[in-house]
Amino acid sequence: MAKRETTRKPSTRRTKAAAGESADHADTHAAPAAGGPDVAAPEGAAKPRARAGKTVPSRPDTPQLAIELARSMHDDKCSDIVVLDVRGKSPITDFVVIGSGTSDRQMHAVIQNVRKTGDKLGHTAWRSDADEQSTWLLADFVDVIVHVFEPNIRAHYDLEMLWGDAKRVEWERPEAVVRNRAGLRAGEVTFDH
């Protein structure tokens, strides 16, 4: 009986490993979407992820999206809202928005309104999620990730400390100036005689 010759094609893992590239990181070096780097990705498509320390340009309206999502959370009575600019520090997202809710019902309404706000601004939430007890809810817009926590769970995970070196972004509306009981701005003094 004659011996049959077969040609075996080398596996992709071995080829990439032989080229000096780790198989685990092969997808992080994938080529941009068809059309080259100058062609914008389709609306709602996931952006290419950078390795830690590297930056991938985000859409120019991403900072405004983070600010508007924070304002939406404020309108829905979330407290202690923080917007963190993690560009160049996180390979996952560009902005993190964190807020505290008062009840699971209110927190679900916040996430629902955040998704609607994103849709109005042309950013569809890629995913939203909640833990089993609805103490940590999340909406992922790829460039911006929104977290709504129950206050004790927020203190436990302390994402602000995790991103302690990230720049905080001002999100409050200019007309939302804090006033004291007399209706004066901080530092204002009036004497009526």
How are the SSEs ordered, and which strands pair?
Elements lengths: L11 H7 L43 H14 L3 E7 L9 E6 L3 H17 L6 E4 L5 E5 L3 E6 L1 H7 L1 H4 L4 E2 L25
Parallel strand pairs: 2-5
Antiparallel strand pairs: 1-2, 1-6, 3-4, 4-5
Summarize the structure.
This protein is an alpha+beta fold and 193 residues long.
Shape from CA axes?
A: globular
Largest sheet: 6 strands, mixed
**Number of separate helices:** 5
Task: Using the coordinates above, name the CATH class of the domain at 62-168.
Answer: Alpha Beta
Kindly state the percentage of residues in helix: 25-40%
CATH topology of the domain at 62-168: Beta Polymerase, domain 2
Cα distance spanning the termini: 117 Å
- Reading side by side through the largest sheet, how are the strands ordered? 3-4-5-2-1-6
Second-tier CATH architecture of the domain at 62-168: 2-Layer Sandwich
SSE-based structural type:
alpha+beta
- The SSE string, one letter per element, is HHEEHEEEHHE
Question: Over all CA atoms, what is the radius of gyration?
Answer: 23 Å
The percentage of residues in β strands lies in 15-25%
Q: Please, what is the average pLDDT?
A: 73
What ranges have pLDDT less than 50 throughout 5 or more consecutive residues?
1-57
* Full CATH superfamily name of the domain at 62-168: Beta Polymerase, domain 2
Total number of β-strand segments?
A: 6
